[in-house]
Fold this protein.
Amino acid sequence: MLDFKDIMNNLVIVESPAKAKTIEKFLGEGYTVLSSYGHIRDLKKKGIAIDFDNNFAPEYEIPAEKKDMVRKLKEAAKKADMVWLASDEDREGEAIAWHLYEVLELNPANTKRIVFHEITKPAILNAIANPRDIDIDRVNAQQARRVLDRIVGFELSPVLWKKIKPSLSAGRVQSVAVRLICEREKEIAAFNPESYYRVTGQFEIPGSEAGLKADLSRRCKDEKDAMAVLNECHDAVFRISEVAVRPGRRQPYPPFTTSTLQQEASRRLGFSVNQTMVIAQKLYEDGKITYMRTDSTNLSELALRDISDSIRKDFGDKYLQVRHYHTHSKGAQEAHEAIRPTYVSNRTIEGDAKEQKLYDLIWRRAVASQMADAEVEKTTVDIAIIPDERKLSSEDTSHGVFKAEGEVVVFPGFLSVYQAGVGKDTSIPPLEVGMDLTPREIVATEDFTQAPPRYTEASLVKKMEELGIGRPSTYAPTISTIQQREYVKRGEKEGTPRDYKEITLRKGKIDMKTKTLSVGSEKGKLVPTDTGMVVNDFLTEYFPDILDYNFTARIEEKFDDIAEGKLPWQNEMSEFYGDFHPEIEKINTLKMEHKVGERELGTDPKTGRPVYVKIGRFGPIAQIGEATDEDKPLFASLQPDQSVQTITLEEALKLFELPRDVGQFEGKKILAAVGRFGPYIRHDSMFVSIPKDMSPLSITEGEAIELIEKKREEEANKFIKSFAERPEIEILNGRYGPYFTYLPEGAKKKINYKIPKGTDPMSLTLDEVLKLIEQQDAAPKKRPAARTKKK
């Protein structure tokens, strides 16, 4: 074991400044902690940056913005007696350590690699006392991922530019994620909902004020069937034929992995996948939770002891049940830990509201995982429908039975900390077989079979994990990337109204009503764009291997094998490229009659020319005519709620009515049109955006005037104050509060400046404003994020 106390001048290098700040608090004199701000070098930006003739050797470069930092790190390393490379323990972190070692030209004799699962003083000191060498197998796994993804992106993207439109990109994992979303959308489009009826009864219990709700044990296939049930119930006797009481147990879930944390934070807290990871990274770097990129459900013996002590102290021995969880997914490393609090004794933490909520969720899940099962008592009651008591026994029924179910928590166990699918008690009053019940009302409600649900970010992560696509570090960046590149968007459409029938039997009378509810809301769901659908269809047809779920999962397994030293990474690259590159060349030479994704809708009745929809340079467009026609083709952008896949000829032709004359206001025309940033109305020299719930094709004169007047009011309220001696400075009201703008001499664009909270903007003097400009200009600009995980 190394006696680190004898080393006087130590340099610790981490990848994040926040992590550096936390670690520095734990180490005494003789330690300098610096941050590399993520990778200090990467594949060259220009060209493919892979030397195919030299066994797929990556060609790295130090970005211009990192050169000054590298110089400072080199100087610090030369002065140090020992350099400790303390980047994260995953493959990305291992690669960061290796790049530091190579670029800083470190001496192996005085360079050590240290890793830790949590940023606490004992963990840091233990890591320094037990250093290791850089794990070159993990580095190679990261290089293999980086090189393969560069090959796919660099060779496949130009094919999309040529066959669909410029500026598109393809990626190995992102394209498969888009495929999942596109296939689900096709399932939904092909789905035909079928009507059925659910029958529910509300019954009175003799001698009790409590009621009993029960559902018919079968669905009614149609209105006729539902009416038959209600008619039979009209004069029926409702007799309890069975009461079953049985014990049940509920087990706690394992502590969080990356994917289960992302899913649960979405479900319970409404966080996006990326938001969860940003907050978790902050909690980790502040020393509050263990490492947040993990697929292990394992807990260390120390953690198990601490959690057990906490449970005994707060709940008693009866609530403790120590459990050892094991991860079944390939590539998971049991030496790693699940996500947990670093100190379970810290029930709450300091931080903003979101940090506190996520920490609380992690704390509850970790503690609950070591608690006893919840014990419940489930009661099931069967109520027979007896149309004619003189002829039928309670077992002889023609339309099924009503069933009531209740559940009571007998012993809460882990539910004392973490509610998991068991809500409040739904107890059933004491009942006996043979007891007759009186119906208050029996309702048959029309319902419809439902299409498969669209993916949320959380359910997409779950599906990717099930298929073995990606790893803990790739889920969040993949989902962010497919949205940034506009292959997928978050749905914004509210549900559409749907009529349904409700048939009620009450006090001997049957009544039927038609009601309306909203169905099919896309809010917050992942919906493919037209570009995403077209790109997916093209890649699926011409590059089926790249889009194949099993192929992508096998690649991930090979990365795992490389990380374990079982496979030479260059051999895998050679095998992949040998199959992939010829396919690229073949498709590049393929001649296509029309652009990929182009649909012919019919003929324009005015001109007799064909009408198409397709993906244009700036998005989905409709086109009248051919490029080879004597008259140039006409183009019109599709509306945000229209799709290349579903738009009709009539809807497409309406687009060519824009810009549209809406009416007049104050003697001047109002025009509705669609521009680069969406639909708008123009009046005089004013441009006003049309809200999402209105269309430029149908907006009325009155609605347009209302929007114009609202914009004028906003503009009038925007101005707060200016200074006669310096008219280039204005204090204004903005979306996020008051601010001021300043146009420096010789500059082409105004600069916005913050006004400190609590400052009255009206009372600001010119001298105070000039001082704020000086202070904010002198403040260091924010650096980019510490590190970006690659797919």
